[in-house]
């Protein structure tokens, strides 16, 4: 008799992976419905994955939320890469940074709000957010290295802090969501502010 190339263990592993992915997609869907602290029970009901399995996969609800947020952040990091960072005319570098930040924002805007709500009870999420902000600041400094290099150390620090805040995803969310500014106008605001603090 022919034997299967896949063992029962392979099937269980595949099912586990599929169920975990379905649960994480469900968490993200709940974020988009403004349910920013989804529970294991809510995800079980919406995804069809059992409560027992979800506890086995994630341990607790906060770990599940953190993993869902971090999966979106990872996707946004890929979308936020600037080709030839730091190269080209100043105006083009401003435009490039603004474009990738808004592209990343659209991917993570609901997860961003969920992170802000959950961060007090999730120290690992706080640490992850701190690392992400560090990467965004590093990108800012690399993109505008020619301008920053013309400043003394204290002024470099001030401009970097201001510039990082201006193109921070939370600031973009404040413009687009809480103040109801259109994406086009929000991009124009961020470009203007960056130009004001950086233009040689």
Task: Name the overall outline.
Answer: elongated
How much of the polypeptide forms β-strand, as a percent range?
under 5%
Q: Major beta sheet, specifics?
A: none
**Element pattern in H and E:** HHHHHHHHHH
Condensed summary:
The protein has 200 residues and is an all-alpha fold.
Describe the 3D structure.
The protein is mostly helical and 200 residues long. The protein folds into two domains: 59 residues, Arc Repressor Mutant, subunit A; 131 residues. It has ten helices and no strands. Helix 4 runs antiparallel to helix 5 and helix 5 packs across helix 10. The radius of gyration is 21 Å and the shape is elongated. The N and C termini lie far apart (77 Å).
List the keywords.
mainly alpha, 77% helix, single chain, elongated, Arc Repressor Mutant, subunit A
Blueprint of the fold:
Elements (H helix, E strand, L loop, with lengths): L7 H25 L7 H8 L3 H8 L2 H19 L10 H29 L4 H21 L1 H4 L4 H14 L2 H10 L4 H16 L2
Helix pairs in contact: 1-2, 1-4, 4-5, 5-6, 5-9, 5-10, 6-8, 8-10
